[in-house]
TrEMBL record:
Species of provenance: Leptonychotes weddellii (Weddell seal)
Name of the gene encoding the protein in the UniProt record: LYG2
Enzyme class name: hydrolase
Protein name: Lysozyme g-like protein
Free-text function comment from the UniProt entry: May act as a potent antibacterial protein that may play a role in the innate immunity.
Similarity comment: family membership: Belongs to the glycosyl hydrolase 23 family.
Length: 212
């Protein structure tokens, strides 16, 4: 009896300790895609304004603009849907978020030349910078996507540790921004690249509605 009480007390402590997120049904990989969102927050509940609007992008901006670009890449992304889901489950990351990053960074690989961008500096579906990382595997392989998503989760966890009082959504947004700019570039909430994050979240919501 005493051991049972201690066990459930430990579970409650783990689930409510600061800096950790409680275990919920949302982490169950066997759920319908719309219900599963991994370990870093539910993107469908996070506010976003979509792609940034400026004088040169008055038509293709906002949430509709992000969705338009996401839809253009949907066919290419479907090719990697199973792979994206497998890697997402491995790292407890919402597959829709991975799809959004791939869409923004490489349009599902459609604009790459042998896996490289036009500068020859960034590689793979999520475009890892060779000056910072040593890319592994072929550009669209599971090995390489595991590396890229692993780096993303490392950034999110580093933001969680650096800013323990931030919300779940702020941790995710900070991690997404740090994936591009680095941890040291994030000092306050104002350092988060809002244009990047808002576009990614809008695209991710689109892909979530389309089975990712």
């Amino acid at each position: 009896m005493l051991s049972s009480i201690l066990f459930w007390g430990l579970i409650a402590l783990i689930g409510t300790s600061r800096g950790s997120y409680p275990f919920t049904h949302s982490m169950n990989p066997h759920l319908h895609p719309r219900l599963y969102h991994g370990c870093y927050g539910d993107i469908m509940t996070m506010e976003t304004s979509g792609a940034a609007c400026d004088i040169t992008r008055l038509m293709n901006c906002g949430i509709r603009g992000s969705e338009m670009f996401a839809e253009m890449d949907l066919r290419a992304l479907k090719t990697y849907q199973i792979l994206i889901k497998e890697v997402g489950l491995r790292y407890c990351v919402d597959p829709a978020l991975i799809a959004a990053i791939i869409s923004r960074e490489s349009h599902g690989g459609a604009v790459l030349q042998d896996g490289w961008d036009y500068t020859g500096l960034k590689f793979g579906l999520m475009q890892l910078d060779k000056k910072i990382y040593h890319p592994v595997g072929t550009w669209d392989s599971k090995e390489h996507l595991l590396q890229a998503v692993g780096i993303l989760t490392d950034k999110i966890k580093a933001i969680q540790k650096k800013f323990p009082m931030w919300s779940v959504a702020q941790h995710l947004k900070g991690g997404l921004s740090a994936f591009k700019s680095g941890i040291n570039a994030i000092v306050t909430l104002t350092d988060i690249d809002k244009d990047l994050v808002n576009d990614l979240l809008a695209r991710a919501k689109f892909y979530k509605r389309h089975g990712f």
